[in-house]
Amino acid sequence: MPNRLRFAPSPTGALHIGGIRTALYNFLLARQKGGQFILRIEDTDQNRFVPGAEAYIIRSLEWLGLQMDEGPVSGGLYGPYKQSERLLMYKDYATKLIDEGKAYYAWDTAEDLEAKRQSVQDHSFKYDASVRTHMKNSLSLSGEEVKTNLEADLPYTIRLKVEPGQSIIIQDKVRGEVVFDSTELDDKVLFKSDGFPTYHLANVVDDHLMDISDVIRGEEWLPSTAHHVLLYRAFGWEDTMPTFSHLPLILKPNGNGKLSKRDGQKFGFPVFPLAWPSDNPAESIEGFDSYGFEPEAVVNFLALLGWNPGTEQEIFSLEELIANFDPEKIHKAGARFDFDKALWFNQQYVHKLEFSDAEERLRTQGQALGFDLNAGDLVGAFRLLQPRVSLLKEIMPLAYYFFTDSIEFDNEEINKKWKPEVAPVLEKVADALQNVEPFNFDVAGAAAKEMINSSGVKMGLVMPMLRAALTGTMQGPDVFAIAEVLGREKTIQRFRDFAKR
RNA sequence: GGCCCCUUCGUCUAUCGGUUAGGACAGCAGAUUUUCAUUCUGCAGAGAGGGGUUCGAUUCCCCUAGGGGCUACCA
Question: How far, in Å, CA of A395 to CA of A411, rounded?
């Protein structure tokens, strides 16, 4: 039996990183076991449907490199992969349960139920064995009434008939044994009056029909897993029921509650993989992509947020994650989202980038900044600045002095350190560099330093001014590393110009 | 309120009865870098509380406390 894992989001908007991590873990186990990774769209809530969300989910998985074996785009033998396109079968399965006395029709309206809830003091109203005989359903009504209601096409829901007094034991891969008492469970709605199934029905039916072997999902599903087990039993599918792994939640940075979609704006960092543009700027949201993250870094960060192989390795490629992943090593407690750590992971990946991986993006960014990229050495600039940033997009703004000769000087800082006796030294350094061969970090650097030493002016006064001459700022890479990238001509010119300022 | 889950440095975590409780991020200090960043080294920093079980508990059990989730014709 191959391992078949599904990621089953509902298209209600952008997918946040909690969902991404769930997808990732499903993907990792599928790949590790040589099974399939399946995307299934759970669009059974018409009210919360958001146009574009499905495409967003697919683009997100692609961006992260989580290739799907089956899904709405790639298709597959178990399709369709959108629940809205599977509506007929849910009804059949629900009806089958009714025929077998394991579910029933209910005609209580939303208003009826709301009134019931209001009438009971605390939150204790539960549609279960103790009250269902007092409600309007095919168990409490006479056969005649039921027939009449059905023939009149009265809107109904179908509810699972939960038998009280049995204990339901779940073997969860991350939590071990979890026990529920069916007396505590309500008669869950399986089929809604709008003709759509609820998550509970659709999820169980589809997981069964799609031969899903392992369910990895968020902890918020743990309480309803008991109902799902009951459903597998009712259908007679318990022997092929998937394994369950309930993931700890990703919590807000301050620890109060689970991370939610609004937290990105609130805390000032992305909580979505991809940006979600909107005509209304207030509704546009940033993504890890637009923030400048490398997808590999996001994957690495998320993989380790709640899972750890037990070694001290921190950096994992997707292949290494696949090889090492183990659901039983998933941490049980919720994990706070730590953006600093995410940035650190990204820094590790940016520092490892080859120029060829970065070139296209650097060019695009340089052009957006209005740089004349032909005027300077892009590779040289990249090599110099790469170790100094956490995000690739931070490089080009720092690199402007490689691509223009009109340097903007940070006069406030420069003037603090400027001494008039430095000016002639700059000229002399320029002279000294005129004929050094080759013009590089070592040779030009040595020649310049020798000149400065013989000038009698302190090195500590001159060096910062050399950098200022070249870059306009008091900080940055080594002066002669910059000089080498800039080339002899520009270096000398900038030293001379600066001496005259 | 009820049900369920969880609880090791500020944060993410390792430890599957015996460890000076390890690592990473962040913090602090130092070295390198005549700058800044990187890098390197070091410092500081944790088993929620109380009962058991055991020769021995961070580890197993119970209670309490705290946190979280669920409690919809949402997923």
Answer: 23
> pTM for the full model?
0.95
Q: For B26, which residue's CA is nearest its C1'?
A: A340
Say what percent of chain A tops pLDDT 70.
100
Tell me the CA–C1' distance in angstroms for A41 and B74: 15
Considering the domain A411-499 in this protein, what is its CATH number? 1.10.10.350
Asked about A102 being catalytic, the answer comes back as no
Q: How far is CA A30 from CA A36, A45, A195, A310, A325, in A?
A: 5, 28, 33, 21, 10
Distance A332 CA to B66 C1' (A): 17
**Fold classification of A1-71+248-352 (topology level):** Rossmann fold (3.40.50)
The SS3 call for residue A310 is coil
Q: What percent of chain A has pLDDT over 90?
A: 85
The closest nt to A183, taking CA to C1', is B3
- pLDDT value of position A464: 93
Indicate which residue of A261, A329, A341, A458 is catalytic.
A261
Find the angle CA(A264)-CA(A268)-CA(A270) to the nearest 5 degrees.
45
Distance A184 CA to B3 C1' (A): 7
Q: Write out pLDDT tens, residues A375-392.
A: 999 999 999 999 999 999
Distance in Å from B16's C1' to A311's CA comes to 14
Domain A86-247, CATH 3.40.1370.10 — does that match? no
- Compute the Cα dihedral for A322, A328, A331, A333 and give only its sign: positive
Bases of chain B with protein Cβ within 7 A: 1-8, 10-15, 22-26, 33-39, 67-75
Q: Give per-residue pLDDT as tens, A279-304.
A: 887 778 899 999 999 999 999 999 99
